[in-house]
Amino acid sequence: xxxxxxxxxxxxxxxxxxxxxxxxxxxxxxxxxxxxxxxxxxxxxxxxxxxxxxxxxxxxxxxxxxxxxxxxxxxxxxxxxxxxxxxxxxxxxxxxxxxxxxxxxxxxxxxxxxxxxxxxxxxxxxxxxxxxxxxxxxxxxxxxxxxxxxxxxxxxxxxxxxxxxxxxxxxxxxxxxxxxxxxxxxxxxxxxxxxxxxxxxxxxxxxxxxxxxxxxxxxxxxxxxxxxxxxxxxxxxxxxxxxxxxxxxxxxxxxxxxxxxxxxxxxxxxxxxxxxxxxxxxxxxxxxxxxxxxxxxxxxxxxxxxxxxxxxxxxxxxxxxxxxxxxxxxxxxxxxxxxxxxxxxxxxxxxxxxxxxxxxxxx
Length: 363
Fold this sequence. Notes:
This protein is an all-alpha fold. The chain has helices at 2-10, 17-48, 52-55, 68-74, 76-87, 92-109, 113-131, 138-178, 180-196, 201-208, 212-232, 234-246, 254-259, 265-281, 301-315, 324-351, and strands spanning 59-61, 64-66.
């Protein structure tokens, strides 16, 4: 047993919830952002502003034409896998081999590809690290083992993992359509909490394919956390904190939450309020890329995702036009309500001496 522990330590193979559930999951979201999400944004910009270079096919592969955004979107599997490998500190040959692994697992996983990529890429990465530089023909052995393991696992498990992820997502979306008030609260609160925790709400939403009303509730929950923390901590953190939390991440408050968990009450209650407002009042749907559901106001990706969904719905005939009511709902749920409700709730907590001056100060 000691020999095994020593080997794993030498290879930097750390089997832990942090390494796989935080580091790998967070990196996967970055890979998605730099491929699928950016590709969607590029396509939307090209279509809405009539930019010829962005709407014209720049490559034809196997009879399929790709725009610039289309190429970025097509590389989502490799991007996720390489990002995961980077987080797991893979050596170069393993990292580069994950390009093939990511493509295979994402393609075979179908609509639930991101979850398949997460599991397969983690296993392929660790096995590749284990054999890396153990032979004199490392340049052959490491890629063969990494790719062989990854593609083999993809063929065996990716379709089932992808289907399972989509089934869970479908159940959540179905339940939200059936009970928009209760599920609006539940989805908004849980996804909002995941956004502030050191895990990736974006990757979770992408893996589950969370769109529709449930996606709208997820956006509401994320915005409640980000805008809520940003505004209610303005006295301590000023404009730097407003920007870093409001369009960056509320995860910056995690250290303060550990010191005084009560500072989290106001954003969580705010998400419980804005979630059902999004689902029941404004019928806010996220029909863009599922990863956008878990991004909130980070780079305004959540709002861009909602807008791209509107555009897509108009194109396929399920929506007639973007109305002033749509814009009012998006602005209120994303910015105005969190900026008003969260500080109000926090002021009550301050008066009851549950939250103190300086508790929200960023290091």
